[in-house]
C-alpha cells in the first residue's frame, strides 16, 4: 500500500519571531509541487508567526510537544487544545531530547498522545535507541519498549499518527544511520504495527530522523521502508530543507493525502 510521505522540520529552540517568519516564507515560496506532506514545527512562541507565513499553502503547522493534561494550573505548559486553536495539525511527542532533558517517560507520553488524539492532532511519535543500547545489542528491545509502553496504550481509535525512528546517537551529531541500520529498525517498527493494528498498520508512515541533510536524504528516502524524514538542524535552512522535500518527492508510491 502507498503511504503518505512526510518531511517535518523540527526547529527546536532556535530563532526569533522575524527569523521564523522569514524561514517559513522562504519554504513556502520555493516549495516544490510534490506529493509530500510538509510540516513546520517552530518553537511554540513562534507558531502564530509561522501560521501567518504559511496560510493557505498546504504546509502543516506542527508543535514540538504538548501537555499531558487538558487544562488548568500547569505553569509553562501548552495544551493540545491550545495548539489546535493556534492552527496546529500535528505535534511531535516523545522526542529523545524531551525524554532526556525533561525526563519524559513512556507513561507520560501515553497521556500526551491521548490529549493529542482527543484534539485530532496527528502525533509524530519518536522512538530510538541510545548508543549504549545499540552497543549492547538492545536496539530492537529499546524501540519495542517505547512502542509497547509509550504508544500502544494510546491507540485503539483508528486515528492517524506517524512514527519517527530517530537513533539518539544520530541526532544533531552529524552521524547518520546507514541505510541498512535504518531499514532494520524500520522493519521492527513495521512488524510491530502489523501485529498491533493488523492491515491498518500499513497506512502508518514511519519516518527516519537523525542528521538528515541534503546529501544523505536521497539515499535514505529511496528506501521503500523509509516514508519520510524528521529533520532538525537542516530544517533551519530553507535550501537544505527543500532539497530534502525534493528527495522525498522522488519516492515511488507516495500519495498526497
Ligand atoms: P537533527 O535532529 O536532524 O539535527 O539530527 C533531528 C531531530 O531531532 O528530530
* CATH superfamily heading: Aldolase class I
The bound ligands are: 2-phosphoglycolic acid
| Uncertain stretches | none
Assign the CATH topology: TIM Barrel
Determine Rg (CA atoms, Å): 17 Å
Q: Report the sheet with the most strands, covering strand number, pairing sense and barrel closure.
A: 8 strands, parallel, barrel
Let me know the number of strands. 8
Helical run tally:
10
How many structural domains in the coordinates? 1
Structural class: alpha/beta
Q: How far from one another are the termini?
A: 13 Å
The CATH architecture can be named as Alpha-Beta Barrel
Describe the overall structure:
By secondary structure, the chain is α/β, with parallel strands linked by helices. The protein has a single domain (6-252), classed as TIM Barrel (Alpha-Beta Barrel). Helix 8 (179-197) links the parallel strand 6 and strand 7. It has ten helices and eight strands. Strands 1-2-3-4-5-6-7-8 form an eight-stranded parallel β-barrel, surrounded by five helices. It has helices at residues 17-30, 47-54, 80-85, 96-101, 106-118, 131-135, 139-151, 179-197, 217-221, 238-249, and strands at residues 6-10, 37-41, 60-63, 90-93, 122-127, 162-165, 206-209, 228-231. Bound molecules: 2-phosphoglycolic acid (PGA). Residues 10, 166, 171-172, 209-212, 230-234 line the site of 2-phosphoglycolic acid.
